[in-house]
Fold this protein.
Amino acid sequence: MEFRTKGKTSLLGGFRRLITQKMKNSTWVRGKVIDLVRQRIAGAAVLVGDGKIERINYEADEPAAENEGPYLLPGFVDAHVHIESSMLTPVQFARLAVVHGTVATVSDPHEIGNVLGTEGVEYMLENARPVPFKFCFGAPSCVPATTFETAGAAITVADLAQLFHLHPQVGYLAEMMNFPGVLNGDATVLAKIALAKQLGKPVDGHAPGLRGEAARRYVEAGISTDHECFGREEALDKLGFGMKILIREGSAAKNFEALADLLHQHADRMMFCSDDKHPDSLVEGHINQLVKRALARGIDLFKVLRAACLNPVRHYGLPVGLLQPGDPADFIVVDNLRDWNVRQTYVDGQLVAENGTSLIPNLPSRVVNRFDTLPKTPEQFGLPAPKGSGTHCAVRVIEVLDGQLVTRQVRANLSVVGGLVRPDPARDILKIAVVNRYQNEPPAVAFIRNFGLREGALASSVGHDSHNLVAVGVSDELIARAVNRLIEARGGIAAVSDREEALLPLPIAGLMSGEDGYRVADQYARLDALAKRMGSPLQAPFMSLSFMALLVIPSLKLSDLGLFDGERFAFTEVVINPPHP
């Protein structure tokens, strides 16, 4: 679909240096152009017509240190994101993102793929099609993510081939999370990588903590990127083997502080991404926030913008313009190089956002889903103590780390009452449960700490990667109540206590809402605030909760089939040993 600015004049109020003028069905836009290809800044008049940059007439060069704008530059690209994690459809995601100068995303639809298979991927393509925004979707490489959980679907090598063949918008093989399979020569894993290489498609990586010889072998298998580096040394290892490194700053996982300074020396092989970003965070900002933070650290402007704009376009071969003659007219206007307020965003020459207001229409989204479990009773969330346990029992406990996807494994002694091992909210040791939403099976239960709830329970049908229901709470009764709210709604996030409760329905695959993105963000913010009133100290309690079922990230997680040790890649027991007499 082509979007044009024919016959339309746009004035950016309050800016003397920016002049737009209609001329023969084309539009002149004037300001200081930040040319990332030639690494210069100069005053210019840019002629936009038929969705393209027709001509750029440069004036005298102007020093980069002169902050006052307006400045014209290529639009920002999120180099790795799961749109579904915003709880918004592609339509609604784009409406919020363009306000911050984002014109494109490299989007891995494996969340909805785990629920609905290729039907889910095709849903994302369909929903995105009419939107003036550039989505590059990946073909999910790991659906299901592991064999240690129940997913709603599987995507085979043949399915991947069909996605690539039928949909040109499917531009790469999405993150290869099964790095053990790569290293051990798993035939199916290698066949998926070989398919992408045969078609000339990049292969995204996912290898948290992988270093040295193992990292080298992973890269040499054909993996080109990684967004999971914990720290500088790990990233340097992977850069040294030829991999491109993504600096991730999402709602839960935040690696900017650990990796940003690598831009000084390695800007040619780095990109920015959000990975998973909840709607309230997206309202506040996107890649523009990382640009501003990186510049505040003293990193060179052109190195920062290379990561934010140029590198993703070139690595993935995106149909996104770089503000060069003949390019698609995808660019943004910012007020100055100090505040970086995005004043206008253009996609294919169409003005899609201006002065903080999205101009993308609020298009409807149809509902697809798979939700086949029945309501649960509090008794189903009880954990029986071993026979002869006495009054106490030693258990393994998942320890949440705020701002990280990784967890720790710790031990605790808990009370046994009525034959059941009880949580201990006073010591911040709560019950966690995962409920299979595709089949009516008993819940899996374990214990967790650092969620900090003093009362109530939280529950979510966003449970990476298989998206079963995941809940945490102070009692079996409240966990059951929260879970049953989601089952009744066929998806969403919920917070319940003895005094109040709230629900955000997510009827599309149990992951997304088709409602106005700003309204969804407001609802989410209210739930987030309720979780924090209930005691949670986490920055993003629901985002952290959603990753407690992500088995491919160590150390200890919970699937619908049981407690999983991500370091040994095997199930383990919740109860460590019989309790002391």
About this structure: The two ends are 72 Å apart (CA to CA). Residues 1-19 have pLDDT under 50 and may be disordered.
